[in-house]
């Protein structure tokens, strides 16, 4: 497509879709007009992909996920269609800043962390590989939440990404299903029929996702909830306006926010409703599409692969059995076998509190028929495996991980280590009974967004050096390897990083009013705030470093900027305390004249995809410091290494594989291994002993306790400190010295700039394997049995 075509399309939409004269158009108008013009270019390949799938009677993949953290879509689409230069030129003609137009798009706030961002990378790769696929999820009106800091504390506000027109989606009022809850189960003879007590309508909204080079587009289909009955006119006419609107408000609650606080019973019920809502609507839609082509539901597994992204859609197992057995008269055992042949399940965490459990009471009242089916699935499985000790039901709860495992033909982990631990721990027994079921598919990230778009300076250098085939075949980055010996290349590589850092420094000054030195080491930890991810270990190290610099300011310290970003779950009190502590430390350290040229601490609020795109290209050091055995994989670790950051990390998740590939000499390793961590936890008073053995750590903790960072309020961090001293399940204290030493090693290497750059180049050149294209090929071959359509 030409520049003229793009200009024409955009002007057309500006005039006819937005009713604006270019002379009066605002940035927002240009952004929507451009998005619509670009969307027009996606519709043809999108239709062609659908036709090719129907025409060839191909199997389709359905990716069911509670989260799709897609971020902004405009630049992605422009880049994948190869229209970046054209778009830039058009805006130059109109004297409008193309950067401002791109920045005007709100982030689609449809996710929380790595799990949701992985789903978004997968969408890009599925389209790039021309694999017929749908993403299915919820169209949350307010997403997760917008994070602000008030006096250093996290405050949550509703996200408003949908308050403006969402230019990418097509509303599909005809694709709507009634989804029921509660009610009764009527048993007549051998048949059971569920009569729900209440229901809502799930309505589809489709966003086409275009792959690299614009040849194929799949659909992201998101469900929003609306009432079956708009409002109660009788009550309205009696003057009870609020009561009349209640059914509508209640129905819409289902698609309002992602992860509503589930510490209350109402919160729990809402979450379960959300899970059933989108899973049931998706399955209904999948069967409708299948039936439009084939008669025999027994052939479902030949044409349908359904991936459960974690246990959130786990109710898909019993729901599919219900549809096949209750509603279509297929024998129960056959229904289970058919469902299992379609379903597979990805586990993203071994943390017991994150493995969902629903009480039988709640399940029984919201989904009475499903509860009965779960019992039968559990009993049948137990009968088939008489030596089985564990059950799906335990202590009045249904364990959704076990249910997913039993109902899936393949279960995958997301890194080699995590998959091994799955086999050894949470699913040890099920793995013994079904030894072929667990497979590994190490996570990956899309090179389109996470190198090509987010880091134009480095991508341009790579293009100049090895051509641009790496974008569709990331392992070709290995061709950069010989250039590590070329001083000109190293200088260009260093310059790209330096410019990225200077740009980030300007942004930090503008938004946070903190001046940071772009020459300093940019040390970055960006991810959800969680004790196992150990942001508190990082801030303890920061405190210790600050103290050491103050003791001896002229000791030749490596200047550092510690950058944090991430949200804490609204109900997670300790995680919120950690945020507060980091902000308190930042306040004091940043204003200390003794250390201020050597150490700065910045906590960037409201971490999202767009912020990650700014931070990652500017990182020197990537903090991947989780307690070994706790981080299933990580994907931020891959993005940062790909963009040339060196990792300081534990032997956890995909860090292990990153280190194998980039080389141990290009990675700062510290800390215990997963088995060592387990052993250490069994040592009585392990934390107290570690603190006693480490004067550096003891002093940092003492400063917190003395109220150095919370003047006048020394009690503020009492719970954080008590937790460290007396429990420290995540072994911050036991790993601290090793971490501190590794940081000092990083300091020393950073001073030898040429050595650092060589290590950095090697990280980029050797990260090609971590493309989500590789991951998706793995799922296609090992799990789904589908092929690319060429
Ligand atoms: C979770 C796990 C990560 C893993 C992702 C994607 O994400 O280790 O990389 O899922 O598989 F914890 P977070 O939300 O914690 O980032």
From TrEMBL:
Residues spanning the signal sequence: none
EC main group: transferase
PROSITE patterns: PHOSPHORYLASE
Domain of life: Bacteria
GO molecular function: glycogen phosphorylase activity; pyridoxal phosphate binding
GO cellular component: cytoplasm
Protein name listed in UniProt: Alpha-1,4 glucan phosphorylase
The species this protein was found in: Oricola thermophila
């Amino acid at each position: 497509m030409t520049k003229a075509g793009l200009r024409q399309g955009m002007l057309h939409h500006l005039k006819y879709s937005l009713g604006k004269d270019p002379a009066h158009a605002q940035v927002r108008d240009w952004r929507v007009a451009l998005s619509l013009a670009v969307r027009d270019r996606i519709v043809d390949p999108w239709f062609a992909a659908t036709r090719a799938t129907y025409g060839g009677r191909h199997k389709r993949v359905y990716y069911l996920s509670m989260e799709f953290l897609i971020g902004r879509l405009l630049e992605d689409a422009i880049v994948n269609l190869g229209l970046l230069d054209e778009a830039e030129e058009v805006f130059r003609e109109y004297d409008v800043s193309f950067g401002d137009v791109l920045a005007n798009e709100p982030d689609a706030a449809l996710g929380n962390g790595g799990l949701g961002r992985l789903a978004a990378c997968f969408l890009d790769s599925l389209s790039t590989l021309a694999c017929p696929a749908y993403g299915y999820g919820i169209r949350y009106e307010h997403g997760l939440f917008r994070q602000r800091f008030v006096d250093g504390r996290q405050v949550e506000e509703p996200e408003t990404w949908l308050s403006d027109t969402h230019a990418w989606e097509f509303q599909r009022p005809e694709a709507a299903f009634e989804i029921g809850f509660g009610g009764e189960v009527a048993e007549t003879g051998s048949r059971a029929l569920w009569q729900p007590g209440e229901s809502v309508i799930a309505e589809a909204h489709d966003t086409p996702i275009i792959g690299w080079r614009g040849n194929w587009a799949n659909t992201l289909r998101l469900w929003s909830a609306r009432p079956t009955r708009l409002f109660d006119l009788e009550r309205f006419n009696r003057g009870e306006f609020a009561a009349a609107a209640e059914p509508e408000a209640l129905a819409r609650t289902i698609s309002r926010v992602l992860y509503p606080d589930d510490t209350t019973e109402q919160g729990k019920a809402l979450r379960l409703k959300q899970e059933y809502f989108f899973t049931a609507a998706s399955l209904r839609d999948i069967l409708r599409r299948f039936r439009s082509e084939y008669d025999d539901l027994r052939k479902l597994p030949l044409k349908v692969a359904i991936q459960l992204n974690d246990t959130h859609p786990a109710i898909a197992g019993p729901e599919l059995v219900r549809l096949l057995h209750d509603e279509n008269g297929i024998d129960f055992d056959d229904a289970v076998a058919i469902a299992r042949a379609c379903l597979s399940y990805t586990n993203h965490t071994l943390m017991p509190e994150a493995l969902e459990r629903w009480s039988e009471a709640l399940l029984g009242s919201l989904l009475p028929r499903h509860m009965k089916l779960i019992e039968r699935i559990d009993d049948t499985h137990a009968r088939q495996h008489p030596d089985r000790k564990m059950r799906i039901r335990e202590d009045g709860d249904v364990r959704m991980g076990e249910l997913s495992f039993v109902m899936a033909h393949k279960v995958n982990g997301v890194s080699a280590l995590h998959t091994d631990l799955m086999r050894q721990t949470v699913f040890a027994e099920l793995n013994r009974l079904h030894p072929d079921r667990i497979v590994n598919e190490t996570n990956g990230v899309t090179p389109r967004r996470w190198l090509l778009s987010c880091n134009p300076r480095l991508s341009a250098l790579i293009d100049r050096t090895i051509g641009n085939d790496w974008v569709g075949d990331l392992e070709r980055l290995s061709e950069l390897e010989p250039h590590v010996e070329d001083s000109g290349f190293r200088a260009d590589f260093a310059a790209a990083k330096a410019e990225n850092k200077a740009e980030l420094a300007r942004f930090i000054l503008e938004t946070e009013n903190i001046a940071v030195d772009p020459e300093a080491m940019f040390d970055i930890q960006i991810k959800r705030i969680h004790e196992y991810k150990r942001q508190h270990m990082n801030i303890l190290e920061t405190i210790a470093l600050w103290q050491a610099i103050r003791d001896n300011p002229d000791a030749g310290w490596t200047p550092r900027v510690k950058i944090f970003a991430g949200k804490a779950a609204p109900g997670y009190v300790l995680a919120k305390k950690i945020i507060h502590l980091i902000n308190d430390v930042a306040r004091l350290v940043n204003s200390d004249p003794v250390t201020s040229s050597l150490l700065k601490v910045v906590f960037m609020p409201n971490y999202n995809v767009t912020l990650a795109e700014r931070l990652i290209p500017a990182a020197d050091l990537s903090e991947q410091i989780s307690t070994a055995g706790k981080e299933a994989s990580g994907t931020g670790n891959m993005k940062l290494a790909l963009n040339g950051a060196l990792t300081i990390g534990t032997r956890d998740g995909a860090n292990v594989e990153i280190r194998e590939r980039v080389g141990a000499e290009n990675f700062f390793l510290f800390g215990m291994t997963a088995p060592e961590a387990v052993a250490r936890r069994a040592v009585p008073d392990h934390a107290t002993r570690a603190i006693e053995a480490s004067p550096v750590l003891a002093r940092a903790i003492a400063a917190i306790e003395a109220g150095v960072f919370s003047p006048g309020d020394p009690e503020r961090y009492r719970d954080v400190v008590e937790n460290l001293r007396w429990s420290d399940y995540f072994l911050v204290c036991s790993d601290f010295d090793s971490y501190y030493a590794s940081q000092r090693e990083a300091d020393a290497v950073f001073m030898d700039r040429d050595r650092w750059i060589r290590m950095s180049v090697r990280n980029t050149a050797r990260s090609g394997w971590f493309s989500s294209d590789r991951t998706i090929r793995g799922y296609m071959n090992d799990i789904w049995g589908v092929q690319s359509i060429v």
